[in-house]
């Protein structure tokens, strides 16, 4: 579906003291809504019960997120800005592409290794600084992964620690319960289902829970259709990840091993959903209807193309994430529009009637939610398609010492992926939703590949993306000559 493009008129709302909207014609003021953003770590877009329009997972139980989806808009084609933790969070909190601030995971080393990045620059305006200026009390709970502390980026309360998700939910709920009349912006960042790294089948070192007889449906859920992909037609870094990097854990996996991996992964999804429910319950005790966003930083390959965890690839299981938005004026429904996690910042600003910062790359999804207009920052006039974006761009730098720059363009039907070194991919997502047949070298699709390649080139030029100059390394961080 290629929707016509709509240019949204500018409708700037100046900030008001104490979290109120400016007086209307009758001199009345209105309290701005609370804004709560709930983020999981490494959750696939299809890993929730409410997945009509997507394959779904038989037997999976996510009642908390389902309840949010029942009263909000659920986007079935939402994409992360990058399938890596730190830069995905940077994109969420600033609305900017990773190459404009944090391209890789923030390094814990004094010397930043090639696949990583230094901490986020506090001078870059983000969601907390914007909402604090509008009179909001701001707080952050849970995984941060951007270097330093959230307090350096506008969050006045909370704590960013790798505590248990139960502790993160408890602290967030306590904060919500003791806040007064001022509106709040709260980010609750959970760790699961990221802990699949610790419970994946490891043969003799297996530490995960044994299958439960009452969860036979979940254990027996279908395996990915691409499981047997030998990657022979795919870019070389994917095979290196499988054979030499974290993917080698699954080198001798049987179908039963993959079922156990996926079973435990989905149990972690259910576990974190229970903590999401505790936060929503506490939020429900506050006055007024809040704006609530639920999403994840990226997905997990979980057997797609025979790969585990996350690595240098752009498959749907890794780059498509859950996205649910609920709040005042948001109609309940399901949207198949192409959207990006870059769009979260301008969207919540719209819904809370707060002026967003200048210089962001996302677009407000308010027109898709039932809102009548979008309010943009000075100088920002992004195009918003009535049916969503015309395309989504996803970036990747690398992992640890291994730098493997990748860029992806996703349109309504096609996906084009370019590795700086390693090859290209082209998939017809209508006829080949499991991304098995790489058409990049098929002459019959040369025109489509060229069109998408030019689209990516135009994006790189218009956003000053340093993609072509990033360089590549081997897994030890040693530079390679293209």
Q: For the report, how would you describe the main beta sheet?
A: 8 strands, mixed
Query: CA-to-CA gap between the ends?
Result: 38 Å
Compute the average pLDDT: 89
Number of strands: 23
Q: Helix proportion of residues, in percent?
A: 25-40%
Beta-strand proportion: 15-25%
Number of helices: 12
**Radius of gyration computed on alpha carbons:** 22 Å
Helix/sheet category: alpha/beta
* Strand order in the largest sheet: 10-9-11-4-12-14-5-15
Gross morphology is: globular
List unreliable stretches of 5+ residues. 1-16, 23-28, 371-386
Can you offer a commentary on this structure?
With 482 residues, the chain is of the alpha/beta class. The protein has 12 helices and 23 strands. The strands form 7 sheets. It has an 8-stranded mixed β-sheet with strand order 10-9-11-4-12-14-5-15, sandwiched between helices. It has a 4-stranded antiparallel β-sheet with strand order 18-19-20-21, covered by helices on one side. β18 (392-399) and β19 form a beta hairpin. α4 (165-178) packs parallel to α8.
């Amino acid at each position: 579906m290629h929707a016509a493009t709509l240019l949204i008129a500018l409708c700037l709302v100046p900030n008001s003291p104490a979290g109120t909207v400016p007086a209307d014609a009758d001199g009345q003021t209105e309290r701005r809504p609370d804004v709560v953003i709930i983020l999981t770590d490494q959750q696939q877009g299809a890993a929730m019960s409410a997945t009509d329009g997507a394959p779904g997972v038989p037997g999976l139980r996510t009642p908390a997120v389902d309840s949010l989806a029942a009263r909000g808009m659920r986007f079935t084609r939402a994409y992360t800005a990058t399938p890596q933790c730190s830069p995905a969070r940077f994109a969420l909190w600033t609305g900017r592409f990773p190459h404009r601030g944090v391209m890789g995971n923030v390094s814990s080393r004094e010397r930043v290794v090639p696949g990583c990045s230094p901490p986020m620059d506090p001078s870059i305006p983000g969601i907390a600084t914007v909402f604090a200026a509008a009179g909001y009390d701001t707080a952050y709970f849970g995984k941060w992964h951007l270097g330093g502390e959230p307090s350096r980026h506008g969050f006045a309360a909370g704590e960013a620690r790798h505590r248990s998700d139960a502790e993160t939910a408890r602290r967030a709920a306590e904060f919500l319960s003791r806040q007064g009349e001022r509106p709040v912006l709260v980010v609750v960042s959970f760790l699961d289902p990221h802990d699949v790294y610790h419970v994946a089948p490891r043969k003799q070192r297996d530490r995960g829970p044994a299958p439960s007889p009452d969860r036979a449906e979940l254990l027996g859920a279908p395996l990915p259709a691409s499981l047997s992909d030998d990657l022979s037609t795919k870019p070389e870094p994917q095979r290196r990840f499988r054979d030499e990097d974290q993917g080698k854990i699954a080198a001798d996996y049987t179908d039963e091993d993959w079922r156990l991996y996926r079973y435990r992964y989905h149990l972690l999804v259910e576990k974190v959903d229970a903590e999401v429910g505790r936060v929503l319950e506490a939020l429900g005790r506050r006055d007024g209807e809040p704006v609530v966003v639920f999403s994840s930083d990226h997905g997990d390959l979980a057997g797609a193309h025979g790969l585990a965890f996350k690595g240098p690839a752009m498959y749907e299981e890794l780059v498509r994430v859950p996205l649910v938005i609920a709040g005042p004026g948001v109609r309940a429904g399901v949207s198949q529009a192409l959207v990006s996690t870059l769009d979260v910042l301008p969207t919540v600003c719209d819904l809370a009637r707060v002026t967003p910062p200048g210089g962001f790359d996302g677009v407000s999804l308010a027109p898709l939610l039932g809102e009548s207009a979008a309010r943009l920052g000075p100088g920002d006039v992004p195009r918003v398609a009535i049916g969503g974006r015309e395309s989504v761009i996803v970036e990747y730098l690398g992992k640890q010492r291994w730098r493997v720059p990748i860029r992806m363009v996703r349109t309504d039907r096609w996906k084009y992926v370019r590795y700086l070194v390693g090859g290209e991919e082209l998939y017809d997502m209508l006829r080949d939703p499991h991304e098995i047949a790489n058409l990049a070298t098929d002459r019959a699709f040369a025109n489509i590949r060229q069109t998408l390649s030019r689209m990516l080139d135009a994006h790189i030029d218009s956003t000053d993306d340093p993609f072509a100059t990033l360089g590549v390394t081997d897994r030890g961080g040693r530079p390679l000559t293209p």
